[in-house]
């Protein structure tokens, strides 16, 4: 962590401590004990800042500690597969449930059913990864699964990134371009995305190169173009990684990161960068879904609510590993106001 980040982190902790002392309350046990949420969903929803009520969801292929995988033969998933035989395990599995043989299921599926079916298909294919759904707001996971809700009546925009890292040894992948083509066909056929509103970045020599600068620009542009009632779909298929946390906001000490094509010269795109790019400036009234098919992607957006398709969890809950105080400070800069509201609620 840099010198100024250390000062900032220390200042936040000291200010929090003073508020707690003024009200005669403990701060939750110091650096470690205060990191995990002790609030119920109802308490958090009652006290969280308005900036944290945006409609943002993410589907990830695995937990933070897990790696994702390529599928060597997507024909086993009954996909349209317009451009080859390989694909990412998360994308291929999701599409095998939502779009097998280019057909949507006859019956509506709930979020729980989709994620648990993904998990079973992955397990039967020899993959250990556990798909996850995270959200800025609590979702009733027994409700109908959708990428685009009926309330999103405006323009539907997508940024789709597939990186095979051609020529890298080790590190070259084989399925990421196909992930993009397969998912693109699905969102166009089923959800009505128009060609002119879909931006594709791939290292295939035919599309915009998925460099760090180009990815950042694509994300900035889609956020700038979007208006109330629009829908955004962001799809990333490529490498993901973990880096030492550089600002003290991660409970496990690591940032999750995307790996652009020019990572060796330009570096990674950290979860903190994604917050700045995608969440802080997202207009109100916009529905955004991210599909992250990469390693260590479980909480790459650090959204506060989490549901794992492991067959054990029955409802979406606050992520027990998320530092809520750091999360709120990073997104809104209103940690003190939040703590005061939270403490007032506790005392009422």
Instruction: Give the percentage of residues in beta strands.
Output: 15-25%
Order of strands in the sheet with the most strands?
6-5-7-11-1-4-12-13
Mean pLDDT over the residues: 80
Query: What share of residues is helical?
Result: 25-40%
Verbal overview:
34% of the residues lie in helices and 17% in strands. It is of the alpha/beta class and 348 residues long. The strands form three sheets. The protein has an eight-stranded mixed β-sheet with strand order 6-5-7-11-1-4-12-13, sandwiched between helices. It has a three-stranded antiparallel β-sheet with strand order 8-9-10. Strand 5 (156-162), helix 6 (176-191) and strand 6 (198-202) form a beta-alpha-beta unit. The chain starts with a helix and ends with a helix. Residues 1-7, 28-35 and 63-87 have low confidence and may be disordered.
Chart the SSEs and their pairings:
Blueprint: H1 3-22, H2 30-33, H3 41-47, E1 55-60, E2 70-71, E3 87-88, H4 89-98, H5 111-124, E4 132-135, E5 156-162, H6 176-191, E6 198-202, H7 212-225, E7 231-237, E8 240-244, E9 254-258, H8 263-266, E10 269-270, H9 271-279, E11 287-293, E12 305-308, E13 317-318, H10 324-332, H11 335-347
Parallel strand pairs: 1-11, 5-6, 5-7, 7-11
Antiparallel strand pairs: 1-4, 2-3, 4-12, 8-9, 9-10, 12-13
Helix pairs in contact: 1-11, 3-11, 4-5, 10-11
């Amino acid at each position: 962590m840099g010198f100024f980040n250390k000062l900032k982190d220390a200042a936040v902790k000291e200010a929090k401590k003073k508020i707690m002392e003024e009200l005669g309350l403990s701060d939750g046990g110091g650096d470690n004990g205060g990191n995990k949420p002790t609030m119920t969903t109802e308490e958090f929803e009652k006290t969280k800042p308005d900036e944290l009520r945006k409609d943002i969801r993410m589907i990830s292929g695995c937990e933070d500690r897990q790696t994702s995988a390529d599928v060597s033969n997507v024909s086993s998933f009954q996909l349209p597969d317009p451009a080859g035989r390989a694909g990412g395990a998360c994308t291929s599995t999701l599409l095998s449930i939502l779009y097998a043989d280019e057909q949507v299921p006859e019956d509506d599926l709930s979020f729980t059913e989709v994620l648990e079916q993904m998990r079973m298909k992955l397990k039967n294919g020899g993959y250990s990864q556990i798909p996850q759904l995270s959200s800025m707001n609590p979702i009733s996971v027994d409700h109908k699964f959708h990428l685009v809700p009926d309330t999103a009546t405006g323009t539907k925009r997508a940024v789709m990134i597939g990186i095979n890292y051609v020529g890298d040894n080790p590190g070259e992948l084989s399925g990421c371009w196909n992930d993009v083509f397969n998912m693109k066909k699905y969102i166009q056929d089923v959800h009505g995305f128009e060609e002119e509103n879909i931006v594709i970045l791939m290292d295939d020599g035919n599309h915009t190169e998925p460099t760090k600068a180009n990815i950042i620009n694509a994300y900035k542009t889609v956020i700038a173009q979007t208006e109330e009632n629009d829908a955004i779909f962001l799809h990333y298929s490529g490498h993901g990684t973990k880096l030492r946390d550089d600002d003290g906001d991660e409970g496990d000490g690591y940032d999750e990161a995307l790996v652009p094509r020019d990572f060796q010269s330009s570096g990674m795109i950290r979860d903190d960068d994604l917050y700045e790019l995608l969440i802080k400036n997202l207009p109100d009234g916009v529905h955004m879904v991210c599909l992250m098919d990469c390693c260590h992607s479980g909480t790459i957006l650090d959204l506060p609510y989490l549901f794992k398709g492991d067959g054990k969890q029955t409802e979406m809950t606050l992520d027990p590993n998320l530092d809520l105080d750091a999360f709120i400070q990073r997104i809104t800069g209103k940690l003190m106001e939040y703590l005061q509201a939270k403490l007032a609620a506790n005392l009422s």
